[in-house]
Amino acid sequence: STTSREMGSHPLKHAFNWIMHAFAGYLDTSQLLLLWDRVIGYNTLEILPVVAVAIFAFRRNNLMEVSTPSEAEAVLQDIGSLKVIPLLQYCLYARILHPV
After folding, report:
1. Whose CB among 12, 16, 75, 91 lies 3.0–4.6 Å from 54's, allowing a Cys bridge?
2. Are 83 and 31 spatial neighbours (Cβ–Cβ below 8 Å)?
3. Rounded distance, CA 58 to CA 76, Å?
4. Consecutive sets of 10 residues in the chain, 100 residues long: mean pLDDT of each?
């Protein structure tokens, strides 16, 4: 399988944009407010890269199936329907609940 880097698509570009904009313009408004509520509640921006990692983890199967940079772009641009809280729970607690 060809890696995204070999295809000329750099996942970090998406993650950087998501984080720099605090996901504004990428997530549905209700999900964005839930995310920002966590940022304020925990008094840290560290949750933003955690959400980015969770998105990559959630979309990993789709990303492994793409064969062109435009397909990878489409997989990573279509995050508006994702639910923030389940993503965070999956990323933060999956190994606790199901150790490898």
Report:
1. 91
2. yes
3. 11
4. 56 89 96 97 95 92 88 89 93 66
The total number of residues shown for the chain amounts to 100
What torsion do the CA atoms of 61, 62, 64, 67 make, to the nearest 10 degrees?
Answer: 160
Return the CA Rg of the chain: 14
Q: Any idea what DSSP says for residue 10?
A: -
What's CA 20's distance to the chain center, in Å?
13
- Sorted by sequence, the CB contacts under 8 Å of residue 82 that are 6+ apart come out as 27, 31, 55, 58
Looking from the CA of 35 toward its CB, the CA atoms found within 13 Å total 30
**pLDDT given at position 13:** 85
